[in-house]
Design goal:
It is built from 14 helices and 22 strands. The protein is of the alpha+beta class. The protein folds into four domains: 92 residues, Rossmann fold, CATH 3.40.50; 59 residues, Dna Ligase, domain 1 (2-Layer Sandwich), CATH 3.30.1490; 133 residues, ATP-grasp fold, B domain (D-amino Acid Aminotransferase, Chain A, domain 1, 2-Layer Sandwich), CATH 3.30.470; 96 residues, Phosphoribosylglycinamide synthetase, C-terminal domain (Glycinamide Ribonucleotide Synthetase, Chain A, domain 4), CATH 3.90.600. The structure holds adenosine monophosphate and glycine. Adenosine monophosphate binds next to strand 7, strand 8 and strand 17.
Length: 423
Amino acid sequence: MRILVLGSGAREHAIILALRAEESSHEIFAAPGNAGIAQDATVVDLDQNDPAAVTTFANERGVDLVVIGPEAPLVAGVADALRERGIPVFGPGKAAAQLEGSKAFAKRIMDAAGVPTGRALRATTLAEVEAAIDDLGAPYVVKADGLAAGKGVIVTSDRADALAHAATYLPIGPVLIEEFLDGPEVSLFFVSDGDRVLPLSPAQDYKRLGDGDAGPNTGGMGAYSPLPWLADLFGDEDTFVHHVTVEVAEPVIRQLDAEGTPFIGLLYAGLILTHQGIKVIEFNARFGDPETQVVLPRLVDPLSGLLLAAASGTLETHPRPSFSDEVAVTVVLASEGYPEAPVTGRALSGLDAAASVPDVHIAHAATAVGADGLVATGGRVLNVVAVGSSFGEARDRVYRAIDEIVLDGSQHRTDIAARVVEG
Ligand code: AMP
Ligand code: GLY
């Protein structure tokens, strides 16, 4: 199959590695890619956010499937343009992608679909913000509408900090004040063809920068899959997955379809397991990063067949994806200064030694080849991923590997999956 993958992060590298790991020998194009992706795909000079350019490329090269990794091309209408030309694309159109981009849109869909979520109040002035935070009480959750990737969100018990945060974002647009939801977080992905959904395996992301969940929110500093503790709460993982499928994913997909904006692509449900039940904190319209890096290495069935079935509306006859019993852990290596002001351009080495640790691989996020070798070009630089038969083993491997990597001033968490190490 000829596949074009749009995006340049570790998520896209993970998608490409999963496609490569299949039996078939695909021809894979990537844009804009990165230095790691270039080792596993043909990087092409193409503006991922230009619907006409992407459509022309896909047509000229006879691409069988386009997989859209990040949100930006979705919002730019790249999927709409491809679909109009009859090119199979995994990723929702602009209208359905608002499920991620507009928190107000997401809340409306959830209300209409009867999906459990926290209460939220919309505010456009500081006075409205004050009234809302006093109504909902501490801890305060303040979110800028329309901003993704954990940016623009503050969770704090300090009223002054909450107000200051709102004041920062009010000039840009409305803010949402949300009820604080207390409990463990789960990321669960669904592949949707607009009509039906198939669940993938649950994962947990570590959003905060520092060990013990200290420091600012980030795009995600590590992840693991599966979540063995779900069995303690629900009897088994499958009961949980079934519940979220029926109570969350299916009603949302049906609602979007009924509104004439079918969702074809990856529905990412960000959930909190509260004492009052499972609630949605957010939806994303794309694969999660870094969760994808631990979910896809465990996927047993070919990824291309699954994504193509979703893109062409034939999920009904596709079997539910199955996952290996092996566990996966990923740790993000970030640049100094991430997330506020990452220092870029520094030399990066030791990747071969890291990848030689058994059952370890590296997904590149922000790397380029400089005059003297690899350089880091962004905040989250790469993901070290390890699989193993236990979390103890996978953690041991991932941290042995990350110790081999040299990047001045780099940061990583040391407690990824520590809470699930058996015994
Ligand atoms: P979001 O951008 O909506 O995913 O928010 C980023 C992170 O902030 C989430 O992953 C949670 O850890 C936290 N968060 C967001 N909303 C809430 C909420 N209502 N209650 C508790 N924590 C939240
Ligand atoms: N890991 C969080 C996200 O992809 O938005």
